[in-house]
User: Fold this.
Amino acid sequence: MWTDLISPGCDVAQKEPALLMRALAQQLLAYEGRHSEATDDPTDEAARVFERLRVAVTRFAGSSGFTSLMRRAIALARAEDPTLRQLSVRADGTLEGLKQVSVDALLAIIAQFLGLLVTFVGEPLMLRFVREAWPDASLDDRDGIRGQSHE
Assistant:
């Protein structure tokens, strides 16, 4: 229930989008864990999520646009997890220092990135990027992302 996830005095309108982006981030990591040469290493799964998002978003915003959004997402995630200080974004948009990052921090970065996409281009376009990045997956509110051609 949403009320269990929200702190007293917290504005639901502000908290709900963050929870939804975190849930989508968890679904994307889980999908990568089940597919694409799964290694049981969350940092490998996250690297694949970031790479798929990089390819999809770069077509729209260019490499510098993706890199700017990723840098901002990491800066926002640092507020939740200060250990992200060692993580940096290379000029090509790939991440350096990813292996030292916790699963919660990875989720925070992905969720922040998705949230920034919603802020700047809107939810429909963000979902289009996700669908382009995961063409064999379907978004389902009850079950999350599940591979259509693999199940």
The two ends are 29 Å apart (CA to CA). Residues 1-14, 141-151 have pLDDT under 50 and may be disordered. DSSP finds five helices and four strands in the chain. The first helix runs from residue 2 to 5.
